[in-house]
Design goal:
44% of the residues lie in helices and 11% in strands. By secondary structure, the chain is of the alpha/beta class. Helix 10 links the parallel strand 5 and strand 6.
Length: 264
């Protein structure tokens, strides 16, 4: 599916809950501009443990811990949902689709490319995955002047309200979670999730491919990875990693159309 196919805003079916999952280093505020535009009666935006909130007891902040947490969050809703994820949230969405399709009506992710065995983590992720270097970087981020940090986020396309929320949330707890999460996803540890890519086809999936997203691979590579998952694709021209903040109306339109197709 492409935007050229023509997406009309549907009348939403309010019986199916929507769950929107944020990424790193973010909070649920990344979805705030989209939530009201979805015109849904039940939208959940849970906070990843440690990202501006406490971590549960015995929570090690690995990718497996976060996947288990998300499964429990959805199960607690009590009925299948439309699950949408951005960045690391998008990775977790695919994992839920692989392992607990019974919890889903559909899924949507802008991070399918991380399941491509050829994907190379971006430079900052590799710093976080490196002992000592990662700790030094997190210490710098935690102690950085908030105004400078907010300006840095703004310079890469994040609006001031979200940039402020992200910086307010970034503390030592969040930094420790970031290190643990990324170190649990070095290529050899991510390999089992990648090997199970085709299992995501058990429920309808949509891969969002933003052409200006410098953290993901090419649109062509993303489309190939989506095909392995049995997922459709939608291409967002000239939008980057934070496409939902750059054009909330388009984001809501795309998601609403996707939900409607799977509520007939």
């Amino acid at each position: 599916m492409t935007l050229a196919d023509g997406i009309n805003r549907p009348t939403p079916d309010r019986a199916v809950p929507v769950v929107l999952i944020h990424g790193n280093p973010e909070t649920p505020s990344v979805w705030a501009p989209v939530v009201d535009l979805l015109e849904r009666s039940e939208v959940h935006t849970p906070n990843l443990p440690g990202f501006g909130c406490p971590v549960p007891p015995d929570f090690s902040a690995t990718k497996e811990d976060y996947a288990d947490w998300l499964i429990a969050e959805i199960a607690a809703i009590g009925r299948p949902v439309h699950l949408v994820g951005h960045d690391w949230g998008g990775v977790l969405v695919v994992r839920v689709a692989q392992t607990r399709p019974d919890l889903l009506v559909s899924w949507c992710s802008d991070a399918v490319e991380l399941f491509n065995p050829s994907y190379t983590w971006h430079d900052l992720a590799q710093v976080w995955q490196t002992p000592s270097d990662g700790e030094a970087n997190i210490e710098l981020m935690v102690t950085l002047d908030p105004e400078l940090a907010i300006a840095g986020f703004e310079s890469i396309g994040i609006p001031t309200p979200q940039a402020t929320a992200f910086i307010d949330a970034f503390d030592a707890t969040m930094g420790a979670c970031v290190l643990s999460l990324y170190r649990s996803a070095v290529p050899e540890l991510l390999a089992p999730w990648r090997a199970a890519s085709a299992d995501a086809a058990q429920r309808p999936g949509l891969a969002i491919l933003a052409t200006a997203d410098t953290y993901m691979g090419s649109v062509e590579s993303g489309a190939k990875t989506a095909a392995v998952m049995g997922a459709e694709t939608v291409t967002l021209d000239d939008l980057g990693h934070w496409w939902m903040l750059q054009d909330p109306e388009l984001a809501a339109l795309v998601l609403s159309a996707w939900f409607a197709r799977h509520e007939e």
